[in-house]
Design brief:
This protein is an alpha+beta fold. It is 27% helix and 21% strand.
Amino acid sequence: TRLEIGWTIAPALILAGVMVPTIAGIWDLARKPPEDALNVTVEGYQWWWGFEYTDEDMQTNYGDNKPIRTADVLVIPEDRVVYLSLEAEGGLIQKEAQADSDFMVIHSFWIPELAGKQDVVPGRTNHILMQADEPGMYEGQCAEFCGLQHGRMLVRVRALSAEDWEAWVANQKDPGVTPTGGQASQGMDLFMGQLSGGRGSCIECHAVGGTDAASPAGPELTHFADPTHECFAGCIWETTDREALKAWLRNPDAVKMGSKMPNYQLTEEEIDALVAYLYSLK
């Protein structure tokens, strides 16, 4: 009947109409990046994002001249294509209790205003292109269930003007600041050494450029207090929120259940000193 024919043809036309832009979008996302694209490796951990800038002109000017690395906030220049290589990371924190260890698991990187979703799969490198047409802050999150704190694995992209981008790169190439006195200096000593009573050491998991702290297991802290590093611990708290930072150091699992950062049973004096040191890393 005519009605049956209509029921058959109408959905076919609708699907055809959807198929054309879908295929065009797939080809657009799969296109090769331009030669001047900024290359960044996105690393998905439990439960935070790390970023490594892999172009030759994005290497640090100290030590082995390794690539610039940041955590939580991806900083990019405005009006320039960014070619992201997405990889799952983890497995560097191994504890007796399985819940205290980290694992390489699937994630999905998603910045709604700048690009579509792309899976981050263990043992595989996926790619996606991104571009911010104007300076600003763009929010995103992990879009694939990855464990207990999946819902609190947020991320930000900060797009800078050409002038601000050049200044940011120059600063990121420098090593971490070495305090010369006061609480910040005490905090650096705590950070770099072994905590009393065999409680462990911060450098087991973190890196600060230009020092003996070089572990990639936890977030990079070389420029923790740089104005563009606006959030920490999976972008749950603002970096400028001193009380939030102190609560995190006091007991990470109490404020973000399942956190892979241990509770070192820090005293209030130790917490104040570590906070002073972290805020000196600009």
